[in-house]
Each structure stands twice: as structure tokens, then as C-alpha cells.
């Protein structure tokens, strides 16, 4: 179990973030900031809350297992943003914040009287981080944009999967998470620049652009060479050996030895050092051209050995290799345990809940998971009462009117 960490001991403990929006693209940005100590005040719709409270495949006790992770380290307040008084409350919170994170369609904040120019009138240092499918400008800006559509438009769907089948998806919400990660990076850059200028700015993170930013040399390959990357399954064109290979006990082992020096080590481990001098395999380009033949040779060798002895030989020989982990293997692996990559956090229903730890790791002021996702409106009295100074009678009236 992790020990509670004082917020002011964390690297972003002096920042306050107001998180609007829902689902994943905006909230994951808030999670990343909260992981390093920012006071993230999540604003949710009264009575319903963020749909992430209900999302997820498994729901023991009727509870989402996704919500405790994406809402960890946050405080939850409720406010009806379609109500003028609810908008006023949120404006007061934003006036006391360093960062506003939202992932509504472009124009939504503006309709609620929260355009950037209006917010800067009372809080000129505010950084406004906006995560959308297509960005704040351009002919597609008004379209509804989900992560899967951004993955398709940004290029990663086209190159993912078996070449004989339609494009596949990763088993996670990759586009949303990438857009949120870029949004977090942009937020930190804008905060750093604010220290010099004293002024906030808009961080515009589009899902399709976040995916596009990860697409390596796909664009210049087409622009200069007229080459279109296609789906290639478990391999990358002209990168060999880098594939999944069978073992005698029916397991699969991934070996990545596509660099010249690393391939020479693999050849030595295989007991065939002459392969590293063979013109068909001696260079990166030659191995790429002979990929199928080379993969066949390696598969013949791996198929004679059980997975664990094979991995021991490869690791000893300095060859990058490993199993393909599921959650089961992660929980059992000693490296995950030694680095505390999986952390257990107290939870009111589950006792404790395992989740990914905070990454990346800082040597002097690391982040921490202080608590799991809060109950809906759990911090209404704390935030509206202590932070905004609203008395109990006024809070009761707001609750009766369903403003909060």
C-alpha cells in the first residue's frame, strides 16, 4: 500500500487545475497533472457525473474499475454548466486556478460565457488546455471527434493489423491517451512560458494530430519516395529480425535484433556466428530484404527450445527478447515488483485496488497516487465552502435547485 504524500511535497503541488469535460481525452490529462501533485478539481454534472463512472468491462459491486484510475488524485464537485448560477460558480473556481482542462466540442465554453478572452479578463495567467478530435480551427473543428476516429485519420489504424484483414485497433483508447499526453506536455510548456510573460495561453491538442505526431517517417516516405506503409502484422518492413517466434513448449518469444551488432550477438547465441558475415544478413538493409528467410532460420532454432531457457540464453548473450505480457504476467513478474510499476491504493469498496504507478519517475520529487477516484460531488462542501467561502445555507439552496 502506498503511503499518503503531502501535496505540497509533490512537484506540481503549487498548481490548481479545474477539469471540465468527461470520458478520457481531457480527464487523462488531468490525471497526469494530478499524479505529480496538482490540485485537480473535477467539475461534473449533478446527478450523473462523468460517464467514466460507469464505463469498463468488469463492474464488481456495480462499480467501474476504470474510474478509480482516471479520476485518482482529483477532487469532485458538481455544477450544472447549463445553469447561469452553475456557470458563475465555475467561473469563480477558474479565477483561482492556474490551468483549465476541457474536452468539449469547440464553441461550447464560449456558449457558456467562458471564452478564453473572457476568462483572461479576470485571470490573465490562466492556461487553457483544450482537447478535441480535430482541434479548435479548420473545416472539421465542429465535428464530433472520438479517439477511434482520430486514430483512423492520424494514420495509425491504416498500418495496424494483418495485411489480409481490415485495419485493427489497439486494445486501449490510444488516440485519447496520446492527445491527453500531448495536452499535458503543452500545459507544462505554457506554464513555463507564463513565468517569463506573466500570461496564459490556449493549448490546442487534437486527437488526430497527436496520433500523426507518432507516425515516424510515414509522411516523408510518401512525399519523397512515393512509398505507402501498409499493414504488416507482427513485423515492420525492412526491419529484421524483429518478430515473434515459436518455442518447443508452445510459447511465443519476441526477439528484436535488427541492429548489426545485436544481430551478431544473436547469431553467436544461435551457434551460427557465420550468419553475421553472410552478405544476405550482414547489414540492416540486407536483413530487411531477406526478412522471410531470416525469420525462418530463427524460428527453426527457437522451436527446439522451451521459452524460459531460451530467454535466459538470449538475455545472457545481450539480445533483446521477452514474452508478450498479459496482466497475469505483469502481477507475477519480479521486475514489475522491484520497480513498483503496479501500486495498490486503498479503496472504500475493494479494500485495495491495483493500478499503474506514476510515470515517469523523478529521482528527487516523484509523483504519487494519493487516493482513487472520488465519489460524485464528494468535495462540494470543501471546495465551495472553504475555497469560495460559500456558507452552508447558500450551499443547501444550490443543492435544492440542482445547481450543484
Structure notes:
The chain has 17 helices and eleven strands. The protein has a six-stranded parallel sheet with strand order 3-2-1-4-5-6, sandwiched between helices. Strands 7-8-9 form a three-stranded antiparallel sheet, covered by helices on one side. The radius of gyration is 25 Å and the shape is elongated. The protein is of the alpha/beta class and 404 residues long. The longest helix is centred in the middle third of the chain and has 24 residues, at 174-197.
Strand content: 5-15%
Q: Give me the secondary-structure category.
A: alpha/beta
Specify the biggest β-sheet.
Answer: 6 strands, parallel
Mean pLDDT: 92
The side-by-side strand order for the widest beta sheet comes to: 3-2-1-4-5-6
CATH class term of the largest domain: Alpha Beta
Q: Topology of this structure?
A:
Elements (H helix, E strand, L loop, with lengths): L15 E4 L5 H11 L3 E6 L22 H4 L3 E5 L5 H12 L3 E4 L5 H4 L4 H7 L4 E6 L14 H8 L19 H24 L4 E5 H6 L5 H8 L16 E5 L5 E5 L3 H10 L14 H6 L1 H12 L4 H10 L4 E3 L3 H6 L1 H5 L3 E6 L3 E6 L23 H8 L4 H9 L4
Parallel strand pairs: 1-2, 1-4, 2-3, 4-5, 5-6
Antiparallel strand pairs: 7-8, 8-9, 10-11
Helix pairs in contact: 1-7, 6-7
Summarize the structure.
Helices cover 37% and strands 14% of the residues.
List the main descriptive attributes of the protein structure presented here.
404 residues; alpha/beta; Rossmann fold; formyl-coa transferase, domain 3; 2 domains; six-stranded parallel sheet; three-stranded antiparallel sheet; 17 helices; 11 strands; 14% strand; elongated
